[in-house]
Amino acid sequence: MPPRSAQPVTPLDDDDYPAYTMGRAAEMLGTSPAFLRALGEHRLITPLRSEGGHRRYSRYQLRIAARARELVDQGTPIEAACRIVVLEDQLEEALRINEQLRAQGEEPQPETTT
Q1: How confident is the prediction for the chain on average, in pLDDT?
Q2: Where do the domains of the chain lie, and which CATH numbers do they carry?
Q3: Alpha-carbon distance 67 to 65, whole Å?
Q4: Selection from 43, 46, 26 nearest residue 78 by Cα
Q5: Helix/strand/coil (H, E, C) string of the chain?
Q6: Cα dist. 108→5, 64, 90, 97 in Å?
Q7: Could you give the dihedral angle defined by the CA atoms of residues 84, 88, 89 and 91, in that order, rounded to the nearest 10 degrees?
Q8: Among candidate residues 77, 73, 18, the one with its CA nearest the CA of residue 42
Q9: Is the model's pLDDT at 108 over the cut of 80?
Q10: What is the rounded CA–CA span in Å between residue 45 and residue 96?
Q11: Count of Cβ atoms closer than 10 Å to residue 51 Cβ
């Protein structure tokens, strides 16, 4: 998932700051490090690496991983869960942009394909 564009005051305010180790992230989500690695393999989240090469996760990535875990816990295959989360995120962004355009008095134009 791409990083979001909010401008935080400090790293502690930054949802994209890679503050959590893999072990801590897995513990917080109540899952295993293997689950987090699988999310990376399916390109749902891409953790940053510490200088020592260890995976580090942000709060935003943990929220994404938690949503994927909910779907997997409900019986959705991990590949499908990752795709669903990506589509949900894209829809949320599109709705946000449409709302901004409406607030500016512009109507969103549908995309055309040729």
Answers
A1: 88
A2: 14-103 (1.10.1660.10)
A3: 5
A4: 43
A5: CCCCCCCCCCHHHCCCCCCEEHHHHHHHHCCCHHHHHHHHHCCCCCCEECCCCCEEECHHHHHHHHHHHHHHHCCCCHHHHHHHHHHHHHHHHHHHHHHHHHHCCCCCCCCCCC
A6: 21, 27, 16, 9
A7: 140
A8: 77
A9: no
A10: 21
A11: 5
Whole-number pLDDT of residue 50: 86
* The amino acid at 91: L
Let me know if 77 is exposed, middle or buried by CB neighbors in 10 A (0-12, 13-18, 19+). Answer: exposed
Q: Which residue is associated with the tokens 């897995």?
A: 26
Name the amino acid, one letter, at 89. D
Digit-coded pLDDT (tens) for 69-103:
999 999 999 999 999 999 999 999 999 999 999 99
Write down the pTM of the prediction: 0.75
